[in-house]
Please model this.
Amino acid sequence: MFKLIAKNRDANENLAEMRKGTELPAVFYGLGKDTISISVSKVEFKKVWQKAGESSTVVLSTPSGDVDVLIHEVQTHPITDEPIHVDFLVVDKNKKIKVSIPLVFEGVSPAVKGGSGTLVKVLHEVEVEALPKDLPHDLVVDISKLAELHSQVLVSDISLPSGVTMVTKNNEVVASIAEQKEEKETTNEPIDLSKIEVEKKGKKEEEAPATE
Model:
């Protein structure tokens, strides 16, 4: 189980100054709760985020009690990619929820290995429904079955953990093998400058006013 300790913070506090320290500004909301401004440890959050992602339940320990949350949205710095603000979504641990789960592609495709085709990843996540405690961090897609040109892996081919139901349509394509197109070599033909000059000259003569 993942856990983070949260501190209450003033919603009007200078966030830029806070980010210079060890705390990361955040909020949590959901299930009819008002939006509460908090802060969490930068170091601890990054550890939890790496392992839990946005689909595993995190226990947020606040001064007013523990709440079950999902990491709903993370704002990152445009240059450093470091988290600068987090939204936590409160969930009911006894109620099923729908969440998008990232896909992890594993295995070696014989078609790709043999050079007969190229792997095309159509989906990178699927939507599932489950109790918060049963939500997987990710789902594995085995591409070793893609042995021939135009072979496909469908959503129905993805194995689900116990207690998890697929919401995305089973007949949707997750990955396929497409024909490998050869790149045509382009030759740079020399430019005929004399032709260009003649064309320009002719154009000028056409544009010149007629003499009476």
Observations:
- The CA atoms of residues 16 and 23 lie 11 Å apart.
- The two ends are 96 Å apart (CA to CA).
- The chain has two domains: 2-91, 98-179.
- The longest strand covers residues 65-76.
